[in-house]
Amino acid sequence: MVAWLIVVVVAIGIVIGIRLLLKRAAEQRAAHEARLRAMAQASLAAMRKKAAAEAAAAKQPAAAGVGGPTQVREERECPFCAEPILKKARVCKHCGRDVEPLA
After folding, report:
1. Contact (Cβ atoms closer than 8 angstroms) between residue 18 and residue 11
2. What is the domain extent for residue 88?
3. Can you tell me whether residue 83 is helix, strand or coil?
4. Are residues 55 and 77 in the same domain?
5. Is the pLDDT of residue 98 over 80?
6. 20, 42: one domain
7. Number of domains, the chain
């Protein structure tokens, strides 16, 4: 009789433990989904802000040229790694080797 009582108590304990684990898993899943929703909203807000800034810049192209002429970067290829570098560069920013600056 005592053995049956022990088996019943252990079974009840197992059932309660499983219910607690399932409850905790559901809470964690809900918290994770809430974090994902918040991240998605932040990403969408950033994308909308970027699109609005690009649209505003496209509407006012003359305002960009008011500050003066834009400088054109005069580049050449590094003789060692063939990556683009400035003509006046003395050291390649890609491979770190010394190069002769061009006039």
Report:
1. no
2. 71-103
3. coil
4. no
5. yes
6. yes
7. 2
Distance CA 47, CA 14 (A): 49
Check residue 69 and give its pLDDT.
61
Q: What is the pLDDT of residues 21-40, one digit of tens each?
A: 999 999 999 999 999 999 99
Looking at the chain, the whole-number percentage of residues with pLDDT higher than 70 is 90
Same domain, 58 and 14: yes
Is the Cα dihedral 29, 32, 38, 43 positive or negative? negative
The rounded distance, in Å, linking the Cα atoms of 15 and 25 is 15
Q: pTM score, two decimals?
A: 0.45
**Scanning the structure block, which residue is given the tokens 């998605």?**
40
Q: What token pair was written down for 22?
A: 């399932």
CA 8 to CA 3: how far, in whole Å?
Answer: 9
Q: Are residues 16 and 46 in the same domain?
A: yes
Across the range 69-79, mean pLDDT stands at 83
Query: What integer pLDDT is reported at residue 101 of this predicted model?
Result: 86
